[in-house]
Amino acid sequence: MGYDVHITRAEDWQEGEAKPITLDEWLAYVNSDPEMRLEGVAEIDAAGGGLIRIQDKSLAIWTGYSEFATRAA
Q: The whole model's pTM is what?
């Protein structure tokens, strides 16, 4: 299962480039939120073996928990 998350100040996420959130704003927000952590890297095991790895100083992890129960796959 996949999903997209768009963090934007625009009313419609497709218009996000018109009202950008700067890297400095994003980093300041993540550093101010106790449920966020800058990670700088994302990795996933690729189908058929191997590893997909993306490095970007803006990558962050939400460490909070949802109020909704998760479903077992």
A: 0.70
